Amino acid sequence: MTTARSFPPSILGHFRSAARRYRGVLGHPGAPRFFLAAALARLGVAMTGLGLLFSIQHATGSFAAAGAATGAFALAEAVIGPQIARLTDRWGQTATVPVAVLVHVSAVVVAIATAGRAPFGITLAIVVVAGVAIPQPGALSAARWSRLLPEPDALRTAFALEANVNDAVFLSGPILVTLIGTSLAPWAGSAAAGILVATGCVALSLQRSTAPKPRRRPERGADIHRSTLLAPPFLAALGVNLGLGCFFGAVPLLVTAAATAEGRQPFIGLVLALSSAASIVAGAMYGALRSTPQPRTVQLIASVVLTLAVVVGAVWPALPGLAIMLLVGGTAIAPLLASSSQIVQATVVPQELTQGFTWINSASAAGIAASAALTGRLVAQGGAEAAMPPLMMLVLIAVMAAASAFRTRTPVD
After folding, report:
1. Domain 10-217: which CATH class?
2. What pLDDT digit, counting tens, does each position of 211-265 carry?
3. Does domain 218-413 have CATH number 1.20.1250.20?
4. Is 183 exposed, middle or buried (0-12, 13-18, 19+ CB in 10 A)?
5. For 353-380, b where at least 16 C-beta lie within 10 A, e where not — what string?
6. Which of 19, 219, 273, 276 is the most buried (most CB within 10 A)?
7. Which residues contact 254 (CB under 8 A, 6 or more apart)?
8. Is residue 144 within 8 Å of residue 211, measured between CB atoms?
9. Residue 123, Cβ neighbours under 10 Å: how many?
């Protein structure tokens, strides 16, 4: 009975310790304000792609046109985003973010207005502009945390918190934009996304005290500074996020195909939510750790867990097996994202920090695009079962990249 009575207080003590760690990082001056502003903007970003899909499909009556537009948007964001981040590092968030917001929101409005009325090529070009200019609130927030918190333990907790927000917004964003678009008008979801992006990013850019200092003039040794984006630990983190993106890109198609084949379409949303739920729990636990493990070790272990989860899906490619895959694989997501941010912060020099965080996002986006295209074709030919072996090979990219980090003599601690 003594053990039974002492067990709940022990668990409660761990929760209290975790809560203290999260309160600690949010207790720094200015932290709650920029964190909430960035979270608001991230919710808008999570709604933008699907909002464009609904708007353009309704205006043109073509899913092909809508798919091409959203694909062009994502590609432009992934390829050009780091170059916009470079300008942010050079001129500062206060100077660049409002301009990017203005261009992005204006382009979205014009794209929706011209869809179905002007030649599709014009709409597509405008959508590309919207993708180029969309702000990266996650990278902007991570750069502020890096400036605010010099302690590795505190940074780990902050980045875990960011990973949890990422899971939450990409879980709730598509649901919210669907509700708004179906309840009001197809373009209303895009309007709501634009308002959230603009409000959050402008509020973020007005907070000067926590913003990283701009680096308008190259410092001596700038050639060395530029090479930090080619540092082995950073490149390994890029590879890990490329593999993680492959997982992200395949999962919705696999679950949809399996559920449709089994007549269980109502369960699609619930099964997809399992990975986000597991990631949120894992991220909260990772951020609450009392000591900080080496990020490269976390990346290797989490990548192996992700790969083993895909093996489960390959062995049992029915909906229950995929549900287990998402539940197990979800536990790896937040630790991978948080440890990637830790590696960027420890590897990349301050004048390139926003670029570093944005490149991580771009690597994931590239994985999503490649995996979605391949998985879609394979699913169309042979169902979810046919797509699982190639997905295993793609996710192994993360394991190989994480393992390569151990070959360098400059570990990121």
Report:
1. mainly alpha
2. 998 876 655 544 444 458 889 999 999 999 999 999 998 998 899 889 989 998 8
3. yes
4. exposed
5. bbbbbbbbbbbbbbbbbbbbebbbebbe
6. 276
7. 313, 317, 322, 375, 379, 384, 387, 388, 391
8. yes
9. 25
Please report, for residues 54, 129, 291, 342, 346, the alpha-carbon distance to residue 151 in angstroms, rounded to integers and kept in the order given: 44, 38, 12, 11, 11
Number of H helices, E strands in the chain: 14, 0
Say how far apart CA 78 and CA 84 lie, in whole Å: 11
- Two structure tokens written together for 309: 């989860």
Domain boundaries, the chain: 10-217, 218-413
Q: How far is CA 278 from the centre of its chain?
A: 15
Tokens at residue 332, please? 């790896």
DSSP states of 139-158 as a string?
Answer: HHHHHHHHHH--SHHHHHHH
User: Token pair 């070959």 is at which residue?
Assistant: 407
Q: Given this chain, do its domains 10-217 and 218-413 carry the same CATH topology?
A: yes
